[in-house]
Amino acid sequence: MMLSASDAAKRAVHYVTEMTGKHAESVVGVERTDDGWRISVEVVESHRIPDSADILACYQAEIDGDGELVSYRRIRRYSRGRVERG
Q1: How many structural domains does the chain have?
Q2: With a threshold of 0.85, does the pTM exceed it?
Q3: Average pLDDT for residues 72-84, to the nearest whole number?
Q4: Nearest-CA neighbor of 35 among 3, 77, 60?
């Protein structure tokens, strides 16, 4: 049976925080793939003072149907509060 989206997201957060050593802020994307799930996880890469100056990153994790990590990569890095257009 295929892993549920919420279980895949929990696994992705676990794997990304374990691999990066950084705190996960939130899951910002969930997409079913042919073999499992593609999950986007936002993490705090660098804490700053004030918090609004924190550097965040979005990591994409591929989780297979059994809940195992297939791959992960950082897809972008940005300042907290930066609004993306388009």
Answers
A1: 1
A2: yes
A3: 85
A4: 3
